[in-house]
Amino acid sequence: QFVPCLYPHLLLCVSFSVADVVLSCVLVEDGAAHGGGDGGMGAGGFSRSAATLVLRDVPAGPDQSLEGLTPFVPPRVIIPDVLIIEATVSSPDIPNSDVLLHADCNGKEVMCELSPFSPDPSRKSADQAFFMVSVSVDGEDFSTSLILRTIKVEQITQRHSRLGLPLSPSGTVQSEVAMVVFSHVKSLSGVLRDEVQLPCGFKQQDPPLAPDVQVTWRVQHRGRGRKILGLKTSLEDTQGPVIHAERRGAWVSAEQVVSEGNASLTLSDLKVEDEGTYICAVSIGKFHAQQVMLLNVIKLPEVSLSEDKLVLKSAKTLVCYSSKYYPLDAEVDSYWWILGFLIITVLFFLQVMK
Ligand SMILES: *[C@@H]1O[C@H](CO)[C@@H](O)[C@H](O)[C@H]1NC(C)=O
Questions:
Q1: What total of structural domains would you count in the chain?
Q2: What is the rounded distance in angstroms from the CA atom of residue 145 to the CA atom of residue 264?
Q3: Which of 27, 115, 138, 271 is most enclosed, with most CB atoms within 10 A?
Q4: Pairing mode of beta strands 84-88, 173-182
Q5: Which of 135, 158, 182 marks a domain boundary?
Q6: Gene Ontology cellular component (predicted)?
């Protein structure tokens, strides 16, 4: 699809290409909230059923071709118990969403889970619903949580048989993206005593859902959880931010939260105890979404040689030691072998030049 050039004489026209992504998802419903009893009930009262999510207008990456991709065509016959949710992802956009365009052909599995929720149970309506969606791609740095809000249907002729939501003339539930939280990193490593940054960002639709934003970072390790940092601020700058760091040296820039939705956490003076699963939770008014990532702490080994001086007169064994590293089961990989080899080569030449 090419966007027509409206003002070609300005030489400012940008044509970009977009495509639709169709994802097979699992719809997870709280059985208790729906009276349950539809057979698909698992342990804990949650029911799981199949659903389809169509992301419309996903922009292609700079060197991606759209060959072989076709726009989504809704089924010709409307089946009211099949759930197809459509969402246009242009504003706000989903960062890195071009990964989704070719995940299928690259054999990467896309995980997609949907669950209905109501941000304000007191103002629940039969014609509007919200869905929380989490999408990630196996083996790729792509992980996003979305909040979708259904769009009003002018003339309601059909409703989804189980959820009761009005269907569009093509039999789909049409929605817009209200909020996105993304990290795109599933695991990362930080060096002991160094600084590490855990990326997390958010976007919301315009006009904003609410002016007040809350960012909370927590960590979980071996079954225990603790809060790292909490930040409350207003996007309207009416009041200053309130930051509460419960770990020394933990930091989120309130300025960047407000200006660009960047809620990345900086941890300085990394300790072994900092290892764990980090959760970045963002709340905008009554809307809430989060991302999870794993932090490993490593200590690079100190490398030394068994001999200070190398005299090349007789055969000698040179041992390369590495010590003081973490985790202890780390394998000394080729990097250190190459470094060791280089040191030996340099020593050898120094010796020869003498
Ligand atoms: C987010 O903020 C951190 C500093 O807090 C910065 O280093 C990082 O580059 C920012 N990320 C983006 C995507 O702007």
A1: 3
A2: 16
A3: 27
A4: parallel
A5: 182
A6: external side of plasma membrane
Question: Using an 8 Å Cβ cutoff, are 130 and 116 in contact?
Answer: yes
Nearest CA to ligand 1 atom 12: 262
Q: Burial-class residue 145 by CB neighbours within 10 Å (0-12, 13-18, 19+).
A: buried
Any ligand 1 atom below 6 A from CB of 96: no
Given a contact cutoff of 8 angstroms between Cβ atoms, the answer to whether 158 and 78 are in contact is yes
Residues 74, 163 share a domain = yes
Pocket flag, ligand 1, residue 143 (CB < 6 Å): no
Q: Are residues 131 and 253 in the same domain?
A: no
Report yes or no on 3 lying in a domain: no
Q: What DSSP character marks residue 9?
A: G
Cβ(150)–Cβ(121) below 8 Å: no
d(C-alpha 204, C-alpha 180), whole Å: 6
pLDDT per residue as tens digits for the range 162-177: 888 889 888 899 999 9
pLDDT at 334 over 70: no
- Measured from the CB, is residue 1 less than 6 Å from ligand 1? no
Do 319 and 192 belong to one domain?
no
**pLDDT tens string 57-90:** 888 877 777 777 777 888 888 887 889 999 988 8
Check whether residue 286 and residue 318 sit in a common domain: no
- Residue 1 falls inside a structural domain: no
Condensed to tens digits (0 to 9), the pLDDT of residues 208-230 reads 899 899 999 999 999 899 999 99
Looking at the fold, whether 68 and 138 belong to one and the same domain comes out as yes
pTM: 0.80
Minimal-distance CA residue to ligand 1 atom 11: 262
